[in-house]
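Our example pasted here:


***
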Amino acid sequence: MLAYTALKQRAAVAAMIRTISAQETNAEAYAQWDKVADALRDQHAKLG
């Protein structure tokens, strides 16, 4: 994912991705994955 992001935005995208692994349960991680993926798709057309 980071390869498709602008250099200035890579830190923010990496932070969003890290929020997925910070979740306590698998269900929470999957829910966070959906939120992050939706947000990144909206911001970066190549990730869609």
Summary: The chain has two helices and no strands. The longest helix spans residues 26-43. The mean pLDDT is 88.
